[in-house]
C-alpha cells in the first residue's frame, strides 16, 4: 500500500504529464490553424541575398515548394517546377530550402538551371510553421494569402498545373 507522500508524488507527476500533453495539443492545434487559415507569414533571405515575405505576394497565387538538395524526389521534380515557372508567370513560384548552407544550395540551383526565387530556411522555423513532415511539400496560397492546397511528395508538370488550377 502507498503512503501519502508516494500518492502525492504520483499525483504531481501525472498532473504534470497531463498538463504537458494539453499544452502540446494547444500549440500544435494553433500552428495547424494558422497554416490552414493562411495567416502564417515569414521573412526569409533568398540565395541571392534578397529578403522575401509571404505578404509581399498578396494579390497573386503563390506556390511554395519546400525541398532539400539531397532529396531524390525533390531533385526529380525541379525541372518540372522550372518549366512551370517559365510558362506560368501569373503564379509566383518560390522554393524554400530546408536547413542547408548557401553554397550547397547555390551550386545545386546552378546545376539544375533554377531561375525562380529560392529562400533559405536555415534554422527550420518556417518549415515548422508550415508543419513540414516530409519533402518535397508544396503549398498553393491564394490571392488573399490563404493556404488552399497542400501536396506532400513529388509532382510532375501536369500535376503541378492541375494543382495550381491551370
Automatic annotation (TrEMBL):
Question: Domain Thioredoxin, which positions?
Answer: 33-166
Give GO BP annotations, semicolon-separated: cytochrome complex assembly
Print the keywords alphabetically: Cytochrome c-type biogenesis, Disulfide bond, Membrane, Redox-active center, Signal-anchor, Transmembrane, Transmembrane helix
List, alphabetically, the GO terms of the cellular component aspect.
Answer: cell envelope
Q: Which SUPFAM superfamilies match?
A: Thioredoxin-like
Chief localization class?
other
Task: List locations, semicolon-separated.
Answer: Cell envelope
Q: Which residues cross the membrane?
A: 9-27
Q: Identify a single GO molecular function assigned to this protein.
A: oxidoreductase activity
Q: Which InterPro entries match?
A: Redoxin, Thioredoxin-like_sf, Thioredoxin_CS, Thioredoxin_domain, Thioredoxin_ResA/DsbE_sf
Official protein name in the record: Alkyl hydroperoxide reductase/ Thiol specific antioxidant/ Mal allergen
Q: Which organism is it from?
A: Caldicellulosiruptor owensensis (strain ATCC 700167 / DSM 13100 / OL)
Amino acid at each position: 500500500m502507498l503512503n501519502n507522500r508516494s500518492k502525492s508524488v504520483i499525483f504531481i507527476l501525472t498532473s504534470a504529464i497531463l498538463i504537458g500533453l494539453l499544452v502540446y495539443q494547444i500549440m500544435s492545434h494553433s500552428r495547424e490553424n494558422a497554416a490552414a487559415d493562411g495567416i502564417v507569414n515569414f521573412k526569409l533571405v533568398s540565395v541571392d541575398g534578397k529578403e522575401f515575405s509571404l505578404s509581399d505576394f498578396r494579390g497573386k497565387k503563390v506556390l511554395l515548394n519546400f525541398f532539400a538538395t539531397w532529396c531524390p524526389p525533390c531533385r526529380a521534380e525541379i525541372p518540372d517546377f522550372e518549366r512551370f515557372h517559365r510558362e506560368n508567370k501569373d503564379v509566383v513560384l518560390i522554393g524554400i530550402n530546408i536547413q542547408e548552407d548557401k553554397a550547397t544550395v547555390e551550386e545545386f540551383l546552378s546545376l539544375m538551371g533554377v531561375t525562380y526565387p529560392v529562400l533559405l530556411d536555415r534554422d527550420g522555423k518556417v518549415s515548422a510553421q508550415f508543419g513540414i513532415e516530409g519533402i518535397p511539400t508544396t503549398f498553393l496560397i491564394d490571392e488573399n494569402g490563404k493556404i488552399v492546397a497542400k501536396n506532400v511528395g513529388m509532382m510532375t508538370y501536369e500535376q503541378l498545373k492541375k494543382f495550381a488550377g491551370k
